[in-house]
């Protein structure tokens, strides 16, 4: 008799679990099928509290496959004028001549001395590395 009651109880529990899961699955499927943009918007609007402002969603712009992209303009590094170079060399104490924008032996010697003193390649040319070090002296003592 105890075995009969135990088997009956197990069958009832298994049946309830099985049919309960079936009912839950049917509810989920019904919810998924019935979801549309209108119901989603209504659900979302209902979930918004009074303290939040609505957010406008902008549609993305369509780009045609034939559209051609234009390359970005090339930005060239700053090339200092000879007057800027002479003024910076003068402020750094390497140039004693006039800041006239004319490159002569005094300007060449000052560039080379500056390069040597700052551990740069001594070539007498003011390239990006030399200008990077020299430009710090452009506005000092003026």
Protein model, in words:
By secondary structure, the protein is an all-alpha fold. Helices cover 52% and strands 0% of the residues. Among the domains are: 2-40; 82-137, PGBD-like superfamily/PGBD (Muramoyl-pentapeptide Carboxypeptidase, domain 1). The protein is built from five helices and no strands.
Protein topology:
Layout lengths: L1 H32 L3 H11 L34 H11 L12 H13 L10 H7 L8
In a few lines, what is going on in this structure?
With 142 residues, the chain is mainly alpha-helical.
Please give a handful of descriptors for the protein shown.
142 residues, mainly alpha, Muramoyl-pentapeptide Carboxypeptidase, domain 1, 5 helices, 0% strand, elongated
User: What is the makeup of the main sheet?
Assistant: none
Number of strands: 0
pLDDT < 50 stretches = none
CATH topology-level fold name of the domain at 82-137: Muramoyl-pentapeptide Carboxypeptidase, domain 1
The CATH architecture assignment of the domain at 82-137 turns out to be Orthogonal Bundle
The H-and-E topology, N to C, reads as HHHHH
- CATH class term of the domain at 82-137: Mainly Alpha
Share of helical residues: 40-55%
Shape annotation? elongated
Mean pLDDT, all residues: 78
Q: State which percent range the strand residues make up.
A: under 5%
CATH homologous superfamily label of the domain at 82-137: PGBD-like superfamily/PGBD
- Counting helices, strands and paired strands, the structural category is mainly alpha
What radius of gyration results from the CA coordinates?
Answer: 40 Å
User: How many helix segments?
Assistant: 5
Give the N-to-C terminal Cα separation: 111 Å
